[in-house]
Write a structure and sequence with these properties.
alpha+beta; four-stranded mixed sheet; 3 helices; 11 strands; 45% strand
């Protein structure tokens, strides 16, 4: 993370850093999130895999795509994506293709995001534990119309991820 000349760190944790910047008698805060990976397994019917996960730190259960933080030194985002696919969906894939990237910016909330399509997926021969302790309760393959129904029913919240997934459905 590169700070601007008049920006200083207020808080630094494992997943986020909060900075302040003083410009013309105003203080502006900026949140720098750790880089993240987003994995969207897609099958031959053009359906994507969603997981229903209970995240203990959020206190709720929700449908989501496979995600993870780029939090290991000297491990590239694609390898992290493969690890998250194994940990959260107990799957491996033959093809991992980066399809979208959101570069770090100087916006109020800044992160670097990598989106991958995982193709030719299969179950792991030996299941592995998810080290973050989140529990996957269910998984399902959904078509574009089923995905939109989940958004309409508010089982999936509208976010940047939903926009990227719509882009994927429409362009791949």
């Amino acid at each position: 993370m590169t700070l601007l000349s008049n920006e200083h760190i207020v808080y630094q944790g494992k997943y986020m850093t909060l900075t302040e910047e003083r410009l013309e008698n105003h203080t502006y805060e900026r949140v720098h999130l750790r880089s993240g990976v987003f994995v969207i397994p897609m099958n031959e019917k053009r359906e994507i895999l969603l997981i229903k996960e209970k995240r203990k730190h959020e206190g709720e259960i929700r449908w989501k795509i496979i995600t993870g933080w780029v939090d290991k030194k000297h491990v590239d985002p694609e390898q992290i994506a493969r690890e998250e696919l194994a940990e959260e969906a107990q799957m491996q894939c033959q093809e991992m293709q980066q399809v979208y990237e959101v570069p770090r910016s100087k916006q109020t909330i800044s992160t670097h995001e990598y989106y991958y399509i995982a193709k030719n997926c299969s179950d792991l021969a030996v299941p592995i534990d998810n080290p973050d302790g989140d529990i996957v309760l269910d998984m399902k393959w959904v078509s574009e119309s089923q995905y939109l129904d989940l958004i309409d029913s508010q089982e999936i919240q509208i976010s940047r991820n939903t926009g990227v997934i719509q882009y994927i459905f429409r362009n791949l």
